[in-house]
Structure formats: C-alpha cells, structure tokens
Design goal:
elongated, BirA Bifunctional Protein, domain 2, Phenylalanyl-tRNA Synthetase, Chain B, domain 3, 5-stranded mixed β-sheet, alpha+beta, 31 strands
Length: 589
C-alpha cells in the first residue's frame, strides 16, 4: 500500500481475508440494522455497516481478485478522468478528488463511494478490507461536487478518530471471520507516515472554578480526565497540562476540558449560588429592529403571514444579465441551490407555488430578506428588502362579504400605508418598464427609488406553474429604514374646527393622469387644503372623443377658525383656474 497524497489521507490500514462465503447476514444483525433504518444487503456489507455505526469508523471492502497486481495506491487522478461508481453512473473526476487505485486505475472515490468493478458481489471469495482517515475538507468537497451524500462521507467530513483505524479493522476482521467464514490471510498493514500528535491543553484550577462554579479537588479532576483517556503531561500548583485523546478532536481550549469535567461529574453536583452578578447587555440596532417589528405587526394586522425564504436559490430562475452580477456558490449544496439570490421575487414565488399546490389559494405574504450581487473583483454587496406577495382573494368569502380578488390597487394601498406608517411620504409614482412585472410602478422618496411594484408577468408565473395572478412589491428596506430613522412623526390635537368638503368634476384628455392634476393643485400651496382624493373616473362618447371625467374630492381645514363659504370658494376658484390653465381641463357644472 502506498499513500501519495498524505495531506488528504494521513493514515490507511488494510487487511486481506480469504475464502469467505457471501450470504445473508444473521437475523440478529439484520434486525439491528433495520432498527436504525439501514437496509441489509449481504453479510460483508452488513458487517461494515454494523461496525460503522458501532465505532463511528467507516469501512470499505474490495473484491481482492479484482485488484490488479494486488496493489493499493491512494492518490489523485488527472482532471476529467472517467470513473464508473457502484450505481453504474459514469462520472468525471476532478483533480482534487482523492481516489483509491490499484496498479492500473481508480477503484473507489476515497471515503465517498465505491467503484462498480471492485465491489463485493455474490461471486466474491477474497476481500481486502479498508480502514482509513481522510481529510474532512476534501471528503466534503468531493461529496458535494458529485452529489454523493453517503453515510461514510458524512462521517469522514465531521472527523473520525485517526488513532482507531487499526483497532476497528481488527474488530471487523474477527466479526467477518465469525459470520462469513474464511480466514485472515495477512497481517494488518498500517501506513501512517506522519503520526498525529495529541493536542495539549493547559488548565488552571482557578479557571475551572470560575467557569464551572464549583471548587474541584485536583485528584477528582485527574481521575475524571484519566478515565476519559486524557494523558497528564505536567502538574503544577494551579495548573494541569493534559493531552487530549485522538478520538476527541473538538478538545482545543481549556473551556473544552472544563466541559468534559462538568459532564462527567454532573451538573446537579454544582450548587446554585445565592446571588448572581451580571452586566446588562447593550442592545445594538434597536431603532432598526423596532421599525421592522412595527411594520411586521402592521402587515400581520392586515391579514398577512410572514415567510422566510432561502437566500440560496437556483440560477436557472434568472437570465444571463442577472447572473453576470450574481454571487455563485463555490461549494453548492446541490445543483438546485447554487447561487445567492440576486432577486427576492423568485424565492417568494416558490413559497406561493408550494401553497397553491396544496389548495391554499388566497395568500398574503411578506418577507424580510436580502439579495446579493457583486461589482468587479472582490466587491460584494448585500441589500435588505421587504417584499409583499398577494394572490387570490383578499377578503374571505362569507354570507356578508362578497369575494374580493386581489388587484394592483390593493397592493398599492398596502404599500403606501406601510410607508406612511413609518412616517415616510412618497414623492409620487412613476411608470416602470420591468422585465418581470406588468403595469409596474416605482416610488421615489426624496429623489431615491424606494419601491417597485406590479403584477408578475405570465412568463415568470409559468416557470413556477402558477395559474392565477400574483402581485408583488419590492421595498428597499435599507434605504427606507434610513429615511424612517431621520423622519420625525408629528402628533397634533384633533381639529377643533370643522372640515369643509368640496367635490369637483373635470373633463380632460384620456392621456392625462390623476397625478398630473394632483401635482397642479399642490403647486398652489394652499395652506388650508388638507386633503385631495380621486373618487371617480368616467368615460363616455358624450364627453367627446378621447375625453374622460375625473371627480376629485378636496378637504379644507383652518386650525385657527371655521372657514367661510367665501374663503372656500376662493380656494376652489384658484384650483379650477389652475387646472384649466395647466391641463386644459373643462369644469363640469
């Protein structure tokens, strides 16, 4: 046996067993394996699985007659080398994949999955049994690279006991001899070029007292650590230097040793102190969290449910232009989770589709999450969003209430009211050409784009097999939070004097938008004008070709006195004159 890559494989042990008989394993073993969810296969495979769960050390058995020149070489093969695994799939290897090879070619992806031609079959009579230590990082990368999440890989990637490979091999060899017959045909060959040194940790007794809350006698400490396999390297008046056993790779700090002592001695043996001294923590980002909770509570009050979607998503959802600035995973969990999302819409549609497929057809969701992008080499950016998703009915149908379907205007109302809740007033709405949204608008606040909203287009809905309209709003939470934190919400007394309402109907060109009329009125800066609202739009040939009527309600209020009809009429005359002058409006009498 030869190890060429001693970083990826620091120890490799093996033994040959001859004249075995492949058959079913004993009933007691089958029952124990089934009890932990492992399917029995044959006596050799069952023994290796049994030992793996018993000791935590994965084993692998090769058909010794298939090993060319009876050689085992642990090395890396060239990039793109083809290898057929036990599931009969042909895979292209990376140059970083550690392989177990014979004199001619690879026979096993080390620590992950065996090869088709060297595996144990019903005709196998001689086997070579492997017990090794592989680098957890290399095993994890190979496992995810090929999508092979095997029991052996999950154990190797968490770290196995490098000092126990030969002992486990002895245990497995004797069990195989007992269950499968045959004879041990060789000594255990143990290649261990660079033995791993035990980690030494210095523990001070006063630190043990401080951390545990109990004054341990030194003899008790040494007894507990000795039973656990620690070696006493050095003793002092207030210090004990110990070497951690190799089967405890997590022991690196004095606190780890304290944990072991408390665990064995028992938490119940530590007295509860009569008083506790503590320092109050200073909460960071208090204002930001308060705003988030305030907005979330408001949406929940409107009947929305909060969802939490995955920041890692499938690059297949996005076009090439988006992917150019996206952040891709170097070590993806699966083929469908390989990109940090550049947009919140797609992950939200996954949640919508999941619910629709289970007959939950009326959905109102909101999601606080982040998007990720890069600009140039090494420049990565995260942006926090608040996204709203609405589909189906917004009011549950009942004997008193009619079925009210979600539409763009409901989405717009929820979005604007959420902004106003935080004391932020939109500058206005602008038409937006958006690749993913129909009838899209964007909202500016102090000149910056804060919100984009619209109806999800048919093409994108089709990707998720969503057949009913979905309305979506994307709020830049980072920018909104900054605006809200610098906005002072003013509280005023209830007006003592009555408000005055006046309605006005104007005939304008169909191309004229209500926002234009509203802008004309606001430019007049009438002090006593406290509100303006569109309440009706009417189109008819009787109005004239290409014309429409807009009915607008005006609210007037003077905080110091009751407005007279003369004062109100004067302001209305100014409004009518401005609309006639700026928009060419005709006042309906």
């Amino acid at each position: 046996m030869t190890i060429e890559n001693t970083d990826a494989c620091r120890r490799y042990s093996g033994v040959s067993i001859a004249n075995i008989s492949i058959a079913e394993s004993p009933l007691w073993m089958q029952q124990r394996l089934k009890a932990i969810g492992v399917r029995p296969i044959n006596n050799i495979v069952d023994v290796t699985n049994y030992i793996q769960y018993e000791t935590g050390q994965p084993l692998h058995a090769f058909d010794a007659d298939e090993l060319r020149d009876r050689q085992i070489i642990v090395k890396n093969l060239t990039e793109g080398t083809e290898f057929v695994t036990l599931d009969e799939k042909k895979r292209k290897l990376s140059s970083e994949d550690l392989m177990i090879c014979d004199a001619k070619e690879g026979i096993c992806i080390a620590g992950v999955f065996g090869g088709l031609h060297s595996g144990v079959t019903d005709k196998t009579r001689n086997i070579f049994l492997e017990s090794a230590w592989f680098n957890p990082v290399d095993i994890r990368r190979t496992s995810f690279r090929h999508g092979l999440r095997t029991d052996a890989a999950t154990r190797f990637e968490k770290g196995t006991d490098i000092g126990n490979t030969a002992n486990v091999l002895k245990r497995a060899s004797m069990m195989i001899k007992e269950i499968c017959g045959g004879e041990i045909a060789s000594d255990i060959v143990d290649v261990y070029p660079n033995p791993k040194e035990k980690v030494q940790v210095a523990l001070r007794y006063h630190y043990l007292k401080k951390l545990s809350g109990k004054n341990y006698h030194p003899d008790t400490v040494k007894e507990i650590l000795g039973v656990l396999g620690f070696d006493i390297i050095k003793e002092g008046m207030d210090e004990l230097v110990v070497a951690a056993p190799l089967h405890k790779p997590d022991i690196l700090l004095p606190a780890d040793v304290v944990e072991e002592i408390i665990r064995i001695d028992g938490l119940d043996n530590i007295e509860i102190p009569s008083f506790i001294t503590m320092t109050p923590s200073v909460e960071e980002n208090y204002a930001a969290e308060t705003l988030r909770e305030k907005c979330a509570n408001y949406l929940v009050g409107l009947g929305f449910n909060e969802i939490v979607t995955n920041s890692i998503t499938n690059e297949a959802y996005f076009e090439e232009m988006e992917l150019q600035e996206s952040v891709k995973m170097l070590n993806s969990l699966s083929a469908g989770l390989n990109t940090m999302r550049p947009s919140m819409l797609e992950t939200g549609l996954e949640a919508v589709a999941y619910n629709l497929n289970r007959k939950n057809n009326d959905l109102k969701f909101f999601d606080f999450g982040r998007t990720y992008n890069k600009q140039g080499s090494g420049k990565y950016y995260e942006t926090e969003h608040l996204c709203i998703y609405i589909t189906g009915s917004v009011i549950e149908t009942g004997w008193r209430d009619k079925n009210t379907k979600a539409d763009f205007f409901y989405l717009k109302g929820v979005t604007v009211s959420s902004l106003k809740l935080l004391g932020v007033q939109p500058d206005g709405f602008e038409l937006l050409t958006h690749k993913k949204l129909l009838n899209a608008l964007q909202v500016r606040i102090n000149g910056s784009i804060m919100v984009q909203l619209g109806e999800v287009n048919n093409s994108l809905r089709g990707r998720f097999d969503i057949k009913q309209p979905v309305f979506f709003a994307d709020i830049n939470w980072n920018a909104l939070r900054v605006q809200a934190e610098h906005t002072q919400i003013k509280i005023e007394d209830v007006p003592k004097f009555p408000v005055v309402f006046r309605d006005l109907a104007i005939i304008v060109s169909r191309e004229v938008k209500y926002e234009q009329a509203e802008s004309v009125v606001k430019k007049l800066k009438l002090d006593d004008l406290s509100g303006i609202k569109l309440f009706d739009v009417f189109e008819s040939e009787k109005l004239g070709e290409g014309k429409k009527s807009m009915a607008i309600n005006f609210t007037f209020l003077d905080k110091e006195k009751t407005l007279t009809d003369t004062e109100t009429d004067g302001m209305m005359n100014k409004i009518m004159a401005a609309l006639e002058r700026e928009l060419g409006a005709e006042i309906r009498k």
